[in-house]
Amino acid sequence: MAITTSYRTRSDAVPLRSFKAKGRPSAIAGVGVHAPEKVITNLDLEKMMDTSDKWITERTGIRRRHIAEPGTTTFELATGAARSALKAAGIAAKDLDMILVGTSSPDGPFPSVACRVQNELDAPGAVAWDTLAACTSFVYALSIADSFIATERADTVLVIGAEVLSRMLDYSDRGTAVIFGDGAGAAVVRAAPKGAGFLSWCLGSDGRGYAQVTCGNIEKGAYAAKDTQPFIDMVGPDVFKFAVDIFIRQATEVCQTAGVALDDIDLWVPHQANFRIIDAAARRIGLPMERVAVNIDEYGNTSSASIPLALEEAVRKGRVKSGDHVLLAGFGSGLTWGATLMKWA
Ligand code: ACO
Known about the structure:
alpha+beta; Peroxisomal Thiolase, Chain A, domain 1; 5-stranded mixed β-sheet; globular; binds acetyl coenzyme *A
């Protein structure tokens, strides 16, 4: 599908909305992940299309990606991540008040992936639904969890980012096929002591950029057509510039709102879209790469799963300790963006 709408990323930049976390504080109590076992390397892709390990590694930082076997569902990956996050948090599924799944690749328009996960976990009664904001879905869903806990409408919320993007890939399009992968990550969010947990948020969207990253023939509603395979399409270089810009602006915004200096960020967990995007933004923010979580080499871009996949790895490797300032930041199709600064509980 040819994308015709242009989007001037910088000159059209919108003012950002940011706000301090209010009400009862909430924090991440445990994280978990689940990725398909099957791995496709750049060398495998060399045999499938006109590309090279050198190009992919140098232009994106990706070396491997985990790809679901045909028939593997998004809810299965989501459930695997959910179980490991619940275990890490020491929470029983029956104690969940809410289950939120961020995904752009649900197994069907309905029921929601969240309700399928709920069924697998045997947690009837919790409110369960999906959030679609492309790669920003996980951060949007986290903000919903924080809001419900802040206003005492929930005590314990399971937030999941899960994708089987491989079924939306056109393997004749080297511009997208080499970039995306499958996986899931989850976080249990709970009420926290004052001064801990989420400190500030920056969330926004700019629908003028709707055509920059698409799936299916959105002008004709072709996603729903039986004989149409919905493929991911994007204006890569434009999204690249938008991404660097929005990462820098969001980081600045959430830090200012929370009254924390950029230099006091202990760990930045960015959406893993392209290593060069992360590197360019980190340099401009002034963060050394030792304070940035990067695992795009292993997973590629897993959309809503990428932030929890990188966060879980950082936690598992002991890179996050109580009291650390942790910044999560995403962007994606829509265009959408979302960031939060938290004090690790
Ligand atoms: N292998 C070899 N060559 C390739 C490949 C490939 N896989 N893909 C593109 N090329 C070629 C192009 O054909 C082009 O060749 P030409 O110069 O002869 O015309 C050349 O490489 C440069 O192409 P560009 O698209 O300009 O390459 P760029 O350096 O911008 O990298 C990329 C492309 C990786 C897509 C980059 O633009 C990017 O990461 N953009 C951001 C994408 C993103 O963040 N998306 C997130 C949203 S996802 C969501 O919301 C679901």
